[in-house]
Amino acid sequence: MDRLNAETIKRLALEVGFHVCGITLPATAAQAGARIDEWAAQGKHGNMSYLEDFARRSEQFWSEFPEAKSVIVLGLNYYSNSSTGSVNNGGLTSPTDLGSAALKGRVARYAWGKDYHWVIKEKLEILKKQLTAHAGKPVRFHSAIDTKPLAERDLAEKAGLGFIGKQTQLLSLQYGPWLFLSELVTDLDLEPDMAFEGSCGTCQLCIDVCPTEAIEEDKALDARKCIAYLTIENKEAIPSEFRDKIGHWVFGCDDCLNICPFTNGQQETDCRELTAAEGFGPHLNLENIFDLASQGVYEKQFKGTAILRARHKQLLRNACVVLGNSNDRSAIPVLKKALKHGSKLVREHAEWALQKLGG
Ligand code: B12
Ligand code: SF4
Ligand code: SF4
C-alpha cells in the first residue's frame, strides 16, 4: 500500500469541495462493457454514437494505463432550490414569480448554474496537486468526467457512494440523486471501499411519473424516449409522439429525480457556481431566446453553462414544443415569427405548435 492512504485522500477531497469520495479497483470498472454494449445493440442509445463499442473502448482505455491500481470516485452535490438566475443574462431568465404571464420553459437542475464539467475539472486539478504533494513521489492520474468509457454510476456504487435506483441514477443516502460523478484513475495502491448494497424496494414512483415511459425493468432506460435525450442529445426533429409529453421542459428533465423519496430533505449545495445565482436558473424566457440573432450570439449569451450542449436551433426547436404545450395563445406571435426562421427544424416545430394552439 502507498504512504498516502485512503483516509487522507477522502479528507483532502472534502477540503477541495467534493462532498463524497470512495475508492474502487480498475478490475471492477472493466465489467460494465458487456451490459452497455447489449443496451446499445438494441438501439436504446439513439444517436449517441459515443456509447457504441463500449467494451472495446474501455479495454483500450485500461490498456493505455497498465499501472493503474485504483479509481478514486468523487461526488459533488448540485442540489439547489433557489430559483433566481443571475441578473446579467439579457432577460433570458424567467423567474418563477412571473407566473403564467411569462412564456417560460423549465431547465433541469444540473444546468442551472455554471457548466459542471469546468467546475469539477478545476477541483480535480487542485486535488491532483494535493495528492502528489502528500504522496512524496510522482503519481500518475487520469481524470474522467462523462467522456471516458467508464460507467460512472457503476463505479460509484462499487466505491460505496450509494446504489443505482430504478430511474438509473446513483442514489446517495445523504445527497439523493443529486451528485455529479467524476473519477481520478491512479497508480496509487489504495485500500478499496466495500460496494454499496441498497435497493428501491417496492417503490416505483419514478417509473410511474416518467411522462414518456422511458424507464424500463431492471434499472434500464430507453434513452430515445427520455426527455433529457430528446431535448439535448437529439439533433433531429422530436418524434411527434413525444412532443405533448415533453410538457414545459425546454432543456433536460428532472421528473424522476424530483419524485424520488431520496430527494426529501435535500441539503442545498455549498458550491455556489452550480446554483442559479451563477447561471440562468430553472426557467428560460422563451420569447427572448428567439431574439438571439445567430448561433454566435447564442454562444456568447450562454457561455460557460451546460445549456450550450444544445445548439441554438435545437433550443428553439424545444422552445416551440413547450410553447405549443403552453395552452397560451399569447405564444402565437412569436411562433409565427419562428415560421420564418432559417432552419427547417425550427420552422417545422413552430408549425406543429401553432396547429396545437389553433393559430
Ligand atoms: C449517456 C448519458 C445520458 C443519457 C442516457 C442515460 C442513461 N440512463 O444511460 C441521457 C441523455 C438520457 C442522460 C440523462 C440524464 N443524465 Co446522464 N449521462 C450519460 C453518460 C454520459 C453515460 C451513461 C451511460 O453510459 N449509459 C449507458 C447505460 C447502459 O449505462 P449505465 O446505466 O451506466 O449502466 C451501468 C449501470 O447502470 C449498472 N447497472 C444498473 N443496473 C444494473 C442491474 C444489473 C443486474 C447489473 C448487473 C448492472 C446494473 O450496469 C451498467 C453497466 O455497468 C453519464 C456519464 C458516464 N460516463 O457514466 C451521464 C450521467 C449518468 N448523467 C447524469 C445526469 C445528472 C443525467 C440527468 C439527471 C440530466 C437531466 N436532468 O436531464 C438525466 C437523468 C436521466 C435518467 N433517468 O437517467 C449523471 C448521473 C449522476 C448520478 N448521481 O447518477 C452522470 C453520471 C454524469 C455525471 N458525470 O455526473 N444521460
Ligand atoms: S429524465 Fe424525465 S423523461 Fe427521462 S427518465 Fe426521468 S422522468 Fe423520464
Ligand atoms: S423513485 Fe423510488 S423506485 Fe425510483 S429511484 Fe427513487 S426510490 Fe427507486
Largest sheet geometry:
4 strands, antiparallel
Mean pLDDT: 93
Task: Extract low-pLDDT stretches.
Answer: 95-101
Q: Assembly state here?
A: single chain
Shape: elongated
Radius of gyration in whole Å, from Cα? Answer: 21 Å
Q: What is the total tally of β strands?
A: 11
Strand order of the largest sheet: 1-2-7-4
What percent of residues adopt helix (DSSP H or I)? Answer: 25-40%
Structure annotation, total helices: 15
Could you say which small molecules are bound to this protein?
Answer: cobalamin, iron/sulfur cluster
Please trace the helix and strand order, writing H or E for each element. HEHHHEEHEHEEEHEEHHEHEHHHHH
Distance between the termini: 70 Å
Q: How many discrete domains?
A: 2
- Measured by DSSP, the beta-strand proportion falls in 5-15%
Structural class: alpha+beta
